[in-house]
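Supplementary Data S3. Sequence and structure tokens for construct A.
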Amino acid sequence: MSATFRETFQAVRRQVLTAPAGVTFESARSRHAVLARQATVQALLDLMRDESPGRWSEREAVTRALVAEQQRNACGLWASLLLCAYYPMLSRLRHRIYGHAFDDDDLDQLVISGFLQVVADLDLDEVPDRT
């Protein structure tokens, strides 16, 4: 995994914690009860970082709300929040990809774009849980 992969996610995280992102997040809170329970973007990211079994159902609900918002309005915030929330998983995936067919930066982008394509194509009606 390249240092650029980590740096990309650090930059995305800084971006989602800015005031304009907070305004977009605030408007979605009225559409999703699970988002309404998160006072700030930081609180949402803290919840998504908590991998304890007692938080799984709430994390699932947040994931579904973020996917729904991304599919509804593919603005940068929703993709960025999903990337930040799932950085540990994406980082582990990227670390396991080896080969010489692509350089590191291309593999980094392949993981990111592949994840976002799955989000775009995911049918939330057909996938009721374990999103």
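Construct B, processed identically:
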Amino acid sequence: LKNKSTKDWTKAIDKLLCEEENLNLINSENVELRIRFIDNDGYDYWYVGIIFKDKIYSFLLDGETLEIIAKKEDLK
């Protein structure tokens, strides 16, 4: 990880799953998780994608605070 203050990806997933609505997404069958580390001019982020057969839920989390910065729902 680029910055020492950036949290581990497992903590990013835990934080995301702390929200009831997101936990229900993961408990579904046939789900794929995609996790990416993003560095942008010294700021670190975690992208988490929850992929279903016909939908994609995307989350962008601050790498240090793990705050959800953006959430998006798309049809596949």
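The chain has a mean pLDDT of 87. The longest strand covers residues 32-40.
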